[in-house]
Amino acid sequence: MSAMSRQEAMQKLAAFKQLHSSKIDNVLTNRTLYFRFEPGVDTIIGSTGFEGCFGVVIVSARGCVVAHMTPTGNSVNNAKAKIESYYNSYPAILDDEKAYIYAQVNYFSGPNQGNVMYPELYGQLFAHLKSLHSDGAAPTLVKYVDPQDVCHDPKGNPLPGFNSDNAEYASLVVKSGADQNSAPIVQFITTDMQYHAVRV
After folding, report:
1. Going edge to edge, which strands form the sheet with 63-69?
2. CA 167 → CA 25, 48, 75, 147, 162, distances in Å?
3. 80 touches 127 (CB < 8 A)
4. What is the distance between the alpha carbons of residues 149 and 53, in angstroms, rounded to a whole number?
5. How many CB atoms lie within 10 A of CB 100?
6. Which domain of life does this protein belong to (predicted)?
């Protein structure tokens, strides 16, 4: 179920799609990239295809790092090393930053409902980003689900009232602020959007 109304979720989904369709750069799977925000230039970065993958966004008014990694030790370790190298190379840019982890959670009811998939890897990412943050702040968790799970029971049988053809898969987008004193925009496809997108 969703804590957000259908109207609000669909409005947010429409706004996300509009911004994501304008993306200039795309971060592919198992890539970790740094972007500097230039005054007066719109920088819009997207990443799609999160099916069990982790995403990381580290963003300040002056630049950002976006990572997309498969849920394996090698992929996460490579991303951690790359993120740390960007912190070391651009400390003035990645200052007063906000950090996000985008992670799939278990949709089905039961003791693990809402829990992050691959919790050990998530814990490593969480601890690493917290240790790198300029103020030691913890990263914010943003959750997504497999939208097919919303439309089916645990045995894979279709559920009435849902249309899997309208499934929205996890994606993210970052847009630089109007200037280096303005907050950038960070948006994600969230569980609320995914739930309401497939309801009929």
Report:
1. 31-36, 63-69, 54-59, 98-104, 140-144
2. 24, 14, 27, 6, 9
3. no
4. 16
5. 20
6. Eukaryota
Q: Is the dihedral of CA 135, 81, 124, 98 positive or negative?
A: positive
- Each residue's pLDDT tens digit, 150-164: 999 999 999 999 999
- Confidence grade of residue 86 (pLDDT, cut at 50, 70, 90): very high
Name residues whose C-beta falls within 8 Å of residue 43's C-beta, 6 or more positions apart in sequence: 24, 25, 35, 37, 174, 175, 176
State the pairing for strand pair 44-50/25-26: parallel
User: Exposed (0-12), middle (13-18) or buried (19+): which is 147, by Cβ within 10 Å?
Assistant: buried
29 touches 70 (CB < 8 A) = yes
Residue from 79, 40, 36 nearest 56 by CA:
79
Alpha helices in the chain (DSSP H): 6-20, 73-89, 119-132, 147-151, 191-198
**Which residue shows structure tokens 């009811």?**
109
